[in-house]
Design brief:
Structural class: alpha+beta
Number of domains: 2
Order of helices and strands: HEEEEE
Shape: elongated
Radius of gyration: 23 Å
Distance between the termini: 52 Å
Number of strands: 5
Length: 121
């Protein structure tokens, strides 16, 4: 949907613009389009779709940047060597001693997770 512009009329408010009801309808439609299937809860961005992905996709040569000194994965998934449904190339997982990189999409037949053993520094 294209963004809906509210007609504010001419200066001095001679009632030449959208009615209040029409303007508020446009505002609601614009916010629904902006939010789409995403929801905000505090500082958390959530997918409204069950098992829905959230994709950050910059334009052209743009990057997704994290402007902090760390990126934290708050849940663990100790992968099996072959993997499981939903595992995709580029996924990262961890447990108490290892970091895992998924090197291919799950197909049920090949080992797709590679383990990196973490050492204390």
């Amino acid at each position: 949907m294209a963004r809906l512009t509210i007609d504010t009329g001419t200066a001095g408010n001679p009632a030449t613009g959208d009615t209040l009801r029409t303007a508020m309808t446009k505002i609601n439609a614009n916010f629904a389009e902006l939010a789409g299937d995403l929801q905000m809860s505090g500082n958390t961005l959530l997918s409204a779709d069950t098992n829905g992905n959230i994709v950050l996709d910059p334009n052209g040569t743009g990057q997704v940047q994290v402007n902090a000194d760390r990126l934290v994965i708050t849940t663990t998934k100790t992968p099996t060597a072959t993997g499981a449904t939903g595992d995709v190339a580029g996924s990262i997982s961890w447990d108490a001693t290892n970091l895992y990189i998924c090197t291919a999409n799950y197909d049920g037949s090949t080992a797709i997770w590679k383990k990196l053993v973490l050492q204390a520094i």
